[in-house]
User: What shape does this take?
Amino acid sequence: MIVPYPFLRPLLNVNLAWAGVDLALFPEDFPDGELAATGITHLAQHNRSLPHPLTLPWLMPGDREIYARNSIATQLPVEQLILTLPDGDLDQDLSFLRHPGFRIAAQADSNATLNHLIQRKADWAVLDARQARDQVSPLELARAKEAGLVLVARQVRNNDLLAWCGARGFNLVSNEFLFRPDEVDGTVPDPAKLRLLKILSLIVQDADTRELEELFKQEAKLSYNLLRLVNSVSLGVTTRISSFGQAITLLGRRQLQRWLQLLIYAHQFSEEQQPNPLMQQAALRGALMERLAMAAAPDKAEDRDFRDCAYMVGAFSLLNILLHLSMSDILAALPLTDEVQGALAAHAGQLGHLLAILEHGDRGEFALAVPLLETEGISPTVFGALQIDALAWAGQVALA
Assistant: This one.
């Protein structure tokens, strides 16, 4: 059975924290609505089976017939389902969706279409950020907010659009603006982050535990944030970790190294309270890279070094954006394996190909990602399940 490939991406709230999941299908004009619905149902079933399922709202594509014919409603709590219908469907009788409490969304690209959503009492309005800035009046956006519409902006590709969305009262935004290193070229790198990069270099080299402990004692906030990070994720231990030595004992050096790979994205040496969305995105990339690598190379699934390399490629793939340095400069400072270096520098090897899939997906370039998934032998059903697993894991990673 052939179904479209699902791509799930986080939606951010005004504080840049994860507040929803946007599901896109490719190809979006898949001719068999029943198969598309089957694929969505499989995603929902897999999420329901997880020990810690995603509890964020899901913005799902489709039409009224898809939702009339399948069992999505039995797989996700009704409060999680946001059904994105074609604008024309809003003129039909939607009582069969309204009765169980589903929320209904539709896309808007002009004052007229947004006003139509207001008149039809839709719950959510989905807009292309650039198109909305050019074609939708602030007055109409304000009317939509007053009418109770949740405003969602897609294609938020730069910080200017992010600021515009914030000023216009959008509730949720997509995260494409995170993947724009060209916007920060020439910025002086933060010396504190470079110090953390040196610590990370010692971790990668498997430095002596006592040497690491001394470094952590010198950076009190680093130690504090490490413990908060480690304790934020369910690790199957009943004891809360309260010291660096205990973290090493309970986690082991491999797992500790993974937390440190994420910790560099946290606001270590500033008083900023707003979360850094790059941290959760790095966690997501690391987790998904590891899962994709095991799916694409099942003969290596038990190879811990291979899995560690895959996770590292994902977690480190955003360092150039965080540190305002070229990837080549960053890699020169880290003693990484040739496999990891090649993947990060030039998308070389299997890990490089898998990283390219994630990067295309994050940029909405689904037509480029799907052929690579097919080449690696990863089916739509498997790809969807792996994304759910990674999202659920990364969703727990936070420094609240």
Q: What stands out?
A: The first helix runs from residue 33 to 49.
